[in-house]
Amino acid sequence: MNKWIASLIAGLVLVMFFSGCMSKQQAANLPPEPEKKVIIQKVDKEDIRQVMREEKLLYINNAPERVFEVMGEGIAPQNTISPAQAMALAKRAALADAYRQMGAKLYGVRISAKDTIQDAALKDSRIVAQVDGIIKNATITNMSFQDGLYRVRMELKMSEERWSEIFSY
Amino acid sequence: MIFALSFLYGGEQFVFTARTHSQNHILTYDKLTISPLMRQRSKLENKSCQIMIKKSENGDTYSFLQEHIYLVAECFMGEKIRVYDYGEQSLQLANYQTDATALPVYFTVDFKEEFVTLTLLGR
Lengths: 169, 123
Description:
The structure holds 2 protein chains of 2 kinds.
Chain A: H1 2-19, H2 24-29, H3 45-54, E1 66-75, H4 83-107, E2 110-118, E3 121-135, E4 138-146, E5 149-158, H5 160-167
Antiparallel strand pairs in A: 1-5, 2-3, 4-5
Chain B: H1 2-9, E1 13-23, E2 26-36, E3 44-51, H2 61-67, H3 69-75, E4 81-89, E5 94-111, E6 116-121
Antiparallel strand pairs in B: 1-2, 1-5, 3-6, 4-5, 5-6
């Protein structure tokens, strides 16, 4: 009988020991756990890039910036009142042309073509080209006006990193 | 009414927009617009542009900007420009139309002795 009681007490002690059971007094003597602070930080693109760079998740390319260069051309209209006005209008047209070419370089050109054949002969052939895009940070590097034609040299500098960020589709 | 409202609420902050349409490299439509802002913006961007022209003493800012609108346009050439081009080519005809639109640019004007500074405002 004594054996039974002794083994029961020993079992209870073991259960208490492994279950981590302790008295309230013991718990009060323990040092208090540090209060968990929640830090809310606003993360923007630059932060993410920096983390990616630090963690070497991003391939760092030290190559210089890529430069996209185009030459826009504009013609002076014939119904102008002065050569100055003709030049100003030709310049505006040249700028629009430069933006178009830049858009074509950055975004590409959508081409659709249609050929009509009748009685085994080509009756009509039509090609439609479309450019649609938004250009930013373009600069004019050179411009000239000669023989009624205004030329504008436009360039846009962009790092490869930024290029892949915007156009990686 | 628009004039009265802009006079009452418009400050020294302005918005610039432009639209250019050309056909076969010849300009067919060109409109540049500068208007005072109704709602003032506080966020200044670290982008500015200088126009090397003195302001006349009796003229107001709006008239000055209207007078030199092409210089203002050149200042904002690097800002967002939406371009749409449509070109059609057939056996006997080629027709290319380009539409370039400068998206609204908000800016403020600061007059110095020898030049004028245009500082961009946040969107």
